[in-house]
Design goal:
- The structure is a homodimer.
- Chain A is an alpha+beta fold.
- Chain A has three domains: about 5-275, 2-Layer Sandwich (BirA Bifunctional Protein, domain 2); about 290-400, 3-Layer(aba) Sandwich (Rossmann fold); about 405-475, Translation Initiation Factor IF3 (2-Layer Sandwich).
- Chain A is built from 14 helices and 23 strands.
- The relative contact order of chain A is 0.11.
- Chains A, B: Its main location: cytoplasm.
- Chains A, B: Keywords: Aminoacyl-tRNA synthetase, ATP-binding, Cytoplasm, Ligase, Nucleotide-binding, Protein biosynthesis.
Chain lengths: ~475, ~475
């Protein structure tokens, strides 16, 4: 990896935020526009989203859900039906006040999420326990009026899926909530190679209108946490607000129990900040739009391009392969595809053709291999598997190394100053302590993990009896 | 088809508009909500759209286009850059004037189409002829502030894809425009079994900001036409407005030539109105979410349900098959799946099991077949092919029978009164005649078809020399 090919990007150790901005633009994931806080998702960025979406959509359907599409606009009166919900979302919605040339009688908000639209619809279509469960999902764009924005991580508009379900019992809704947080966790770990901590949000951090919220939290390269997917048990709050009742098996009217769960384009930001390095993106093979990029060497020499294109056609049967036969210099091409995080580079020139072999270079480790054509396909598949496994192992190692345990608030603060990352610490369950910890350290409660440990018997802040171990961190 | 199973829907001959509304709601394609003019696309409706989208997306990618995603909002100043475009769209856009608790300095419109966003982006990323062509597409929701709306046909918000491309030459842009109108036509004819007339829009009917517009026009069961897809050559109008220039092969700065093209959820309305009948929807097999519905008969009898489920598992390898083993009566189920337009019904009960056969009923013709289990799969595939072919042939026959030729304006008017449908008639090319024809008959120019005929030498209205043969019709 000659220094002569180092790209014009900020080193992540110098300025992580600038490194991130450099990478998302130079790797051509996004572009800015004159629309404040919104981003243009360019072909490379969008094909990543298409791959993620396709994987998740399969899982959503396999678990029995059906896709639907709800309106973009929500009349103000509809948004106001559930009290906690409107309080949570009102400060960050965009309002449509004029249509064509006329002023609207009732203003419409651009959906920040669609619980109220689903609520109204569910009331129409659910009458009996025979109509349950209703397991719906929608792929959509939503808008939240954010003051400061960053591509993928926090934008005025983003793309996501939002699941909305109705059930007969609290227990069944609970199982659904757990099932979907597990679907998200598996997608993150198995496909995106992003290790996550699964747990419950504190009441302070739960979704506006939910009974409780489950979350998966991941850890970025700079030690900040990122909420990567949430699943909410809504109880019967929305059902009460919207009158979603059904005749139960005993013949009595009863409110449904609901859930909702969402996963967004934000995860692309996580993928960048978990796997990327100073040469740019590193994309996990399972989700990479191009897994192998062929770079012909001395391509003006007879036979090289023919050979390279034949190779591409033959490999295309088993891997996602592309070729760059442009007249740019090989060094520039190496640069470009490293920046784009293509898992494997395949070089082939006259020397390789003579020897009946190719050169393979791993993006994750920089390792170089000379591989005979015979058996190349198997080798590629094996290498791609290795890269996927290595990326996850590396990220898991980083997460574990950057998860400290603190048993005193002094230690909490000094740990957080010394190494950013997760701090595991006991908590009494009080909102006051949670607020104070945030105020004094900048760290928020990320989750009450499913896998509890007993680090001590007292709250890290107030020293009253502890109820839970909590993951704390500064977060995106 | 016993009358006892006739559904509670209006007959199309009595009130076609009411028939349409009955069908879209009773077949559970859509639901209404408190959002005026918007619709909820329910699972069955959305799975139709997913199938259409998947077919079209494949063709869009196969023809070299890449998917991207642009912002939902357009600042007023950006929308105003191209004069014809803003004039065309300003009367029908929704305006966001407030974000969170603050009033915006510049109002934002919710995209009615995205030419201006692409224009701004293209300016950023195109510098040299080496950057061309740029072949982009986006799947998105758009909003047009319509006064009167109908599900799928005309809604405040709809789903679509919009292609946006940049080229070096006028000729290349022209070829792209033709290529994409052909992609739409093939999708309509080969997948949706909707025959179309391909042609050019008159200047009056072309897209706001385009040099010219190609269109495909289809004919509904009630004789009204429906514009089913359009492809625009934008020339260099947007390029001038946005300054999209590149260094050409001769080393000089030059404006790009652009195209845009779109296909929407409207096509679902066309599919309903072309194939549907008084028992409900009729869905072409190639796009049907369920191609075969298994209805167990006397399902309480031993072995029936096991047999039916085994059959489902075995058939699922080659067709999209579902089973309804609910405790509703078979007659109700027949009703329901006829309403939903499932191409084939498969009945199996004790008698059939004894005889090692099943009963198949075609949705399009009502024909009933007794088919041995051996060879059932081949028979199903053949029948589904036949249904697809028959639906297209039937619709094509309807289109041809309802395309009259008129050589005098008197004949034009009396033909239109006698039979709704297309009227082919010569036209001088003058805007005045086009306006007058609309005013006096309600028919608009649908297109100047690629396949021209010379019906006479004079304009049907002014009797001056004719330039083109035009398809005229009342239209959705």
């Amino acid at each position: 990896m000659g220094k002569n090919f180092v790209k014009d990007i900020t080193e992540m150790e110098d300025d992580f935020a600038q490194w991130y901005t450099d990478v998302v633009t130079k790797a051509e994931l996004i572009d800015y526009s004159s629309v404040r806080g919104s981003m243009i998702i360019r072909p490379y960025g969008f094909s990543l989203w298409e791959n993620i979406k396709s994987e998740l959509d399969q899982q959503i359907k396999k678990t029995g859900h059906e896709n639907v599409y709800m309106p973009l606009f929500i009349p103000e009166s509809l948004l106001q039906k559930e009290k906690d919900h409107i309080e949570g979302f009102a400060p960050e919605v965009a309002w449509v006040t004029h249509g064509g040339e006329e002023e609207l009688e009732e203003k419409l908000c651009v959906r920040p999420t669609s619980e109220v639209l689903f609520g109204e619809h569910f009331k129409n279509i659910i009458h009996s326990y025979r109509d349950l469960p209703k397991l719906y999902n929608q792929w959509a764009n939503v808008v939240r009026w954010e003051k400061t924005t960053r591509p993928f991580l926090r934008t005025l508009e983003f793309l996501w899926q939002e699941g909305h379900t109705c059930h007969e019992t609290d227990e069944e809704a609970h199982e659904e909530t757990i099932k979907m947080i597990n679907v998200y966790a598996e997608l993150c770990e198995n496909i995106l190679a992003i290790p996550v901590v699964k747990g419950k949000k504190t009441d302070k951090e739960k979704f506006a209108g939910a009974k409780y919220t489950y979350t998966i939290e991941s850890l970025m390269h700079d030690g900040k946490a990122l909420q990567s997917g949430t699943s909410h048990h809504l109880g019967d709050g929305f059902a009460n607000a919207f009158g979603i009742q059904f005749t139960n098996r005993g013949g009595n009217l009863q409110y449904v129990q609901q859930t909702s769960w969402g996963f967004t384009t934000r995860i692309i930001g996580a993928m960048i900040m978990v796997h990327g390095d100073n040469r740019g993106l590193v994309i996990p093979p399972k989700v990479a739009p191009t897994q192998v990029i062929i770079i012909p060497i001395a391509q003006h020499k007879e036979g090289v391009l023919d050979f390279a294109y034949d190779l591409k056609r033959s490999l295309a049967k088993t891997v996602r392969v592309d070729i760059d036969a442009s007249d740019k210099k090989p060094g520039w091409k190496f640069n470009e595809y490293e920046m784009k995080g293509i898992p494997l580079r395949l070089e082939v020139g006259p020397k390789e053709i003579d020897k009946n072999q190719v050169v393979l270079v791993r993006r994750d480790t920089g390792e170089k291999f000379f591989v005979k054509l015979e058996g190349l396909r198997n080798n590629l598949e094996k290498l791609l598997d290795d890269i996927q496994t290595n990326l996850f192992a590396r990220a898991k190692d980083h997460l574990l190394k950057n998860s400290q345990e603190a048993v005193s608030f002094e230690q909490f603060k000094s740990d957080l100053e010394a190494h950013s990352g997760f701090i595991k610490a006991m908590w009494c369950g009080g909102r006051d302590c949670e607020d104070k910890i945030k105020e004094e350290t900048g760290a928020t409660s990320r989750c009450i993990p499913f896998e509890q440990q007993s680090l001590s018997t007292t709250c890290i802040y107030c020293t009253k009896p502890a109820k839970h171990m909590v993951y704390w961190a500064k977060a995106y």
